[in-house]
Amino acid sequence: MATPIILQKKKCKPKMFSADELQHILPFKETFVKARTVKERLLILTNHILVAIFNYWASQECIPNVAQEIITWCSNNWRAERGIVQKSNHFCPKRPDILWHNHQPKIWVEIASIMGIDTASANTFGWFGHRTTAMKNVWTSMTDEEHKAIDEEVETCGMQGYDEHTQARSVI
């Protein structure tokens, strides 16, 4: 005979606010949820929600020390529809990437000279193993002005992404 399974009820956390307290802070929920940045949400919390709840507590003559708990509760329970706007561009190209994408003819010539052949292309057997060495050789042969130009290309590419021609080439 199978033993009966005894289900235990989960212990619920005590509610953060009483019904009266919620009546004082719920009018700010819509504004808080519609805020798009962390700074906007913090301003709503400090200038409206905390003021309302502390005024209520002062009228009741009981002021608990829970400001951080209120901020955490609002952030956890009142979620924005699409999330908070943050920096979305985490693209950070490296110098070799820019050299490869924008200066391929020089690199192919260098790969060919390293391999001891007249011309090299993506169809040349074993070319990829020499790509890094070729990029290093091309980099060392460049002048300081060319180095600065490459570094500027890295910065602009990090902000704007690769140019349309490079993006079109990279599509599989």
Which descriptors would you attach to this protein?
172 residues, 2 domains, 9 helices, mainly alpha
Instruction: Enumerate the spans where pLDDT stays under 50 for 5 or more consecutive residues.
Output: none
Overall strand count? 0
- Structural class category: mainly alpha
Q: What's the gyration radius in Å? A: 30 Å
Roughly what percent helix?
55-70%
Strand content: under 5%
Largest sheet: none
Kindly report how far apart the N and C termini lie. Answer: 62 Å
Total helices: the number is 9
Average pLDDT level: 80
| Backbone shape | rod-shaped
Total individual domains: 2
Order of helices and strands: HHHHHHHHH
How would the blueprint of this fold be written?
Blueprint: H1 19-25, H2 29-34, H3 38-60, H4 67-77, H5 95-102, H6 104-115, H7 131-141, H8 144-160, H9 164-170
Helix pairs in contact: 6-7
Explain the overall architecture.
This protein is mostly helical and 172 residues long. The chain folds into two domains: 59 residues, no CATH class; 76 residues. It is built from nine helices and no strands. Helix 6 packs across helix 7. The mean pLDDT is 80.
